[in-house]
């Protein structure tokens, strides 16, 4: 379990980004981290990874704190940033340097993944395209077998077939003792993968729920199919209006993550009330 307690951080003392942030992440889940541009999703991942230091508060992984940057903490966390810089070495050479830092690194799985992504061990990381570098780093991260894997916009730079491969590989390498936290704007790329959904806004976690619980409490449909008194949020469309409404009939619908995200940001109290009933 990962516990973030009373975490406060800002890029200046006058402008605090996170104020007493609380978040608990449990094993066996692929969390989707959503938020507006500038909400601090990438910053939060860096704080969890120990790459930035908070003004106050703690990030705790199995009793080890990010601020200590101890070997016990670092061997249980792998961070895949959106922007990557690699040295002028081959995939295989970089593996020989990286893998010893992660005691549970699965070399066999790594080579299987890069093969599926169409990469060769002898390819030079420095000379590869952005998408190829992203595929290599995803493979390193999944094969590390760390307790916590942080991914910042992992599908950026991937073509459509590669996005499908990414989803399959993430699902395959998720286990009951791992936690994946994926920050993304590309919710449609990950709709079938991320669960629970975490939304940050104004320095707080304003939403943290599983898809099962969301579909139990809310319905995602078109306006004409629900009683208007049950509607919480509406998005106007050319042909039809999409809505988020109270699930009063126990009919389960597929969660529309874009619709949910917009509803949470504009109707926080109504969504909170609906989920608490």
Automatic annotation (TrEMBL):
Cited InterPro entries: AAA+_ATPase (IPR003593), ABC_transporter-like_ATP-bd (IPR003439), ABC_Transporter_VariousFunc (IPR051782), P-loop_NTPase (IPR027417)
**PANTHER family from the UniProt entry:** ABC TRANSPORTER ATP-BINDING PROTEIN ALBC-RELATED
Q: Which GO terms describe its molecular function?
A: ATP binding; ATP hydrolysis activity
User: Organism's domain of life?
Assistant: Bacteria
Protein's UniProt name: ABC transporter ATP-binding protein
Identify the residues that the record assigns to the ABC transporter domain, covering every copy. Answer: 2-227
| UniProt signal peptide | none
Source organism per UniProt: Flammeovirga pectinis
A Pfam family this chain is assigned to: ABC_tran
Per UniProt, the keywords (alphabetical) are:
ATP-binding, Nucleotide-binding, Transport
